[in-house]
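Pipeline run #58 for the internal structure catalog. This entry was flagged by the ingest filter as a single-chain record with no existing model, so it goes straight to prediction. Upstream metadata was stripped on purpose; only the residue string is passed forward. Reviewer on rotation: M.T. Logging verbosity set to normal.
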Amino acid sequence: MVIDTARLHRRRLWEAWTTHGERCERWSGLAELGAKIRAWPAADLDSFEAYRTPKPLVCKQFPLGSPDSRGLYRVEVVDPEDEDYLPPVEEPPKRRPRRALARELSVST
């Protein structure tokens, strides 16, 4: 059996694949999602590739804006498989200014 994955959300497709219905096992979950399931000639199966699993969900933390909320964050979970997903922009690490420590050395002779 072959599934046409065009225009289907990758994570929803894998979730449907892992569900187990009462009568048709995973096939009912795929049909409910709207996936087209077809039989394909065995001689032509070499032209297909395995369907990769979805990327892990991304957990973003946003600091709450009020001055009294130090250390409190709003947590948001986003799916990198969504069409409107924008990967997080990684800011370069902030460098602290270095302080020079000078000491007087007393030399005894």
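catalog note: The two ends are 92 Å apart (CA to CA).
catalog note: Helices lie at 10-18, 26-33.
status: ready for reviewer M.T.
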